[in-house]
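Researcher: Sequence recovery benchmark, item below. Answer with residues only.
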């Protein structure tokens, strides 16, 4: 009998933990609402209104007065992004396509550019990125994370869709769910059209090729000491030393999913800056795609498993001779392979002042 009570207690404890976990997950992730449920759609008291867009650091493709007029009475997709984030970059073709396709039906897309790194706060850098990626819809700089916090957001990228009355009806974190997102756009535009008396033209879904991630891959690696807290994937035994210059030496063996540096490097809050005349970065990784976020003019010389990269795996920013020209602060694509696997990349730098922030993988 005691065993039965014991097992029953464990069973109900597991259920309780599950309920708490689901509640916590719902609060943290704001699970997508089922917009086809009439009770949810009609009962606005269960929906939250989209926060006011305040403390904006800069306006791109719009102004403070214009954005207020554009939002009023329209369906609004708020996209939280930052221009060096590869996951954000991959979603932009869909956003620009939806902007062109549904802009005349009452959809307004607002990019909320909340920077991850200091260089992403520069207005000129964000303007350059929007032009590069063909972003013509309004982009608001959220340098102090005021809008980010008002939305209770924690992720890049993240999309919220508000109906024409300003209630948030849909929420998606990360890449993907493009068809589902477009279905919500069409539904909310149809709701809006009922209030205006206009009949909407039925449109087919946007179809673009989606990036297929490697199922098992190296996680994002950060070079800044504050970003690396709790994950510390710097393999050198010297470790991080806040705001100090450290002379690093390479070990004889390298662990998977850890990066190693050689030379004198300044440890900054969000990255590492090369101080010595030359330096090196070594990484053993698993992925199909490798990107690096870097800044300050430099020429990188890259080898892949000890050899010059072939054209089949060479990233968009790598020249045939294996070099990468760092010209502005942004994400640089180093490797683009059809197959994932365990490989080694070695980056040699001959330019003091070069700064590196993160490795990202796909």
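Model:
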């Amino acid at each position: 009998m005691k065993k039965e009570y014991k097992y029953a207690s464990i069973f109900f404890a597991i259920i309780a933990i599950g309920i708490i976990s689901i509640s916590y997950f719902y609060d943290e992730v704001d699970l997508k609402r089922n917009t086809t449920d009439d009770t949810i759609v009609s009962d606005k008291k269960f929906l939250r209104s989209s926060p006011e867009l305040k403390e904006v650091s800069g306006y791109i493709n719009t102004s403070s007065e214009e954005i207020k007029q554009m939002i009023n009475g329209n369906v609004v997709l708020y996209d939280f992004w930052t221009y060096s984030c590869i996951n954000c970059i991959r979603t932009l073709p869909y956003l620009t396509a939806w902007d062109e396709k549904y802009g005349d039906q009452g959809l307004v897309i607002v990019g909320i550019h909340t920077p991850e790194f200091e260089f992403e706060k520069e207005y000129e850098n964000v303007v350059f990125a929007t032009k590069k990626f063909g972003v013509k819809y309004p982009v608001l700089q959220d340098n102090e994370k005021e809008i980010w916090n008002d939305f209770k957001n924690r992720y890049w990228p993240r999309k919220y869709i508000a109906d024409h009355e300003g209630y948030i009806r849909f929420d998606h974190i990360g890449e993907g769910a493009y068809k589902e997102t477009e279905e919500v756009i069409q539904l909310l535009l149809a709701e809006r059209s009922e209030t205006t008396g206009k009949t909407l033209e039925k449109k087919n879904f946007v179809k673009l090729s989606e990036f297929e991630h490697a199922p098992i891959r190296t996680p994002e690696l950060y070079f800044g000491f504050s970003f690396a807290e709790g994950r510390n994937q710097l393999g050198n035994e010297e470790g991080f030393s806040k705001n100090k210059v450290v002379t690093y030496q390479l070990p004889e063996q390298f662990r998977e999913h850890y990066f190693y540096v050689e030379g004198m490097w300044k440890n900054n809050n969000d990255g590492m800056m090369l101080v010595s005349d030359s330096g090196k970065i070594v990484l053993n990784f698993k992925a199909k795609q490798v990107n690096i976020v870097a800044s300050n003019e430099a020429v990188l010389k890259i080898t892949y498993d000890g050899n010059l990269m072939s054209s089949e795996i060479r990233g968009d920013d790598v020249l045939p001779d294996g070099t990468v020209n760092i010209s502005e602060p942004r994400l640089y694509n180093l490797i683009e392979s059809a197959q994932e696997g365990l490989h080694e990349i070695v980056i040699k730098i001959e330019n003091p002042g070069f700064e590196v922030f993160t490795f990202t993988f796909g």
